[in-house]
Amino acid sequence: MKKTIGAALLVLVLVLTAVVLERTFTFRSRQPAAAPVAVEPLDTAALAQRLAGALRFKTVSYQDSTQFDAREFTGFQAYLRATFPRVHAALKLEKVNGYGLLYEWTGSDPNLPPIILLAHQDVVPVEPGTESRWTEPPFEGRIAGGYVWGRGALDDKGSLVGILEAVEHIIAAEAKPRRTVYLAFGYDEEVGGRRGAAHIAELLASRNVHPELVLDEGGALTTGMVAGISAPVALVGIAEKGYVTVALTAQAEGGHSSMPPDETAVGMLAVGITRLEHHQMPRAIRGPTAAMFDYLGPEMPFGPRLVMANRWLLGGVLAGKFGATPQGNAMLRTTTAPTVLQAGIKENVLPSSARALVNFRILPGDSVQGVVEHVRRTVRDSRISVEPLPGTMNNPSAVTSVDAEPFQLLARTIRQVVPEAVVAPWLVVGGTDSRHYARLTPNVLRFVGAAIGRDDLRRVHGTDERVGVQAYGTAVRVYLQLLKNVAL
Ligand SMILES: [Zn+2]
Asked: Model-level pTM?
């Protein structure tokens, strides 16, 4: 009897091993074949100068909209007109809802659906008190050590000016698009895009514009960010997470702190928050993150390739390892982040209510509704009210198909310009203006071709934001090649 069990076990292990190995060896590369193109002769020093000029305008978005400085935006737009004369002569420009810019480069074939390239004019403020920590000042547009320094170099004036460079270059070569190309530049992306991108998208929708592709920021050409792959990895955002902030309000009897009851509003609220942190929404490898593993796995060394090829068996191991960092975790689940606590007015008075705000970033597949239900279920205290904060509710975006032509086209384009690059789909864990365009097309992609390293992530929205002069040149080449492939 024992012998039979032993033999059966051995057979099982052998079969499992055979299946695991079979799947590993047939885990084929998904990188599209693309013949490299001749490197476009661009004057990268001049490109850097023109970008640097754009960084000198303090087009800052403040949470408090009364701080909006219109002169900076007007100055920035005048700078664009002066710097890209061909664009401004050949394209129609509409100002939308004040400072939104919508350029139309009309194609010769009205039967081809247009494409829309997005970027935003605004930048986040420099945190007061940190100005002196910058190696080069944030709003002087300096070039030093092979970098263009300043707020907006990566997020997102590099894209905006880079797109205009590509169009200017094509017009200079006397080429004309067959397909209509829209350039749409919002001016309040950093505070949600409701005044800029939302209005431009609304206008395009009212004109029945159904683009073949919408391309925005969100992913990048990364180096040293994916363990096991030394080549640059082009992470192309095919979806972005949703968003909701939930307010928890605990009510209790107030009064003198000399005779406190067993339970106080502050104590109840603290228990509620602790429960939320201890009972996170479930972790899962699905959607965009599953697609990312499908694209990265075949390019990896044997060990990780085996794991990624056999997620049916080793998915738990992979999720545990990948989810061990905050960045990895954010790609596997809806995250829970308590951000604001409010209670009490005096040190010896019991507050009759205590309030917390908890911010959730919602994984595609979950929803605002689902998050609110999760919070109610987890807090399970009828004395704590749970309400989503008005104006903070966004469901996750739809997921763009990697098998559809627009993703494949962008992947080929990237590999034409950077032949050694590994392209992979990606989940954008923040938000971009592109979500306002989702109703126009299922094909929304989020990618900028400027090479960035791990170190650059803290620079975006932080101190010492910068872009490499050569890296920026690559971003312009990607826009150029994309326009050649899709529009000319
Ligand atoms: Zn941005």
From this structure: 0.93
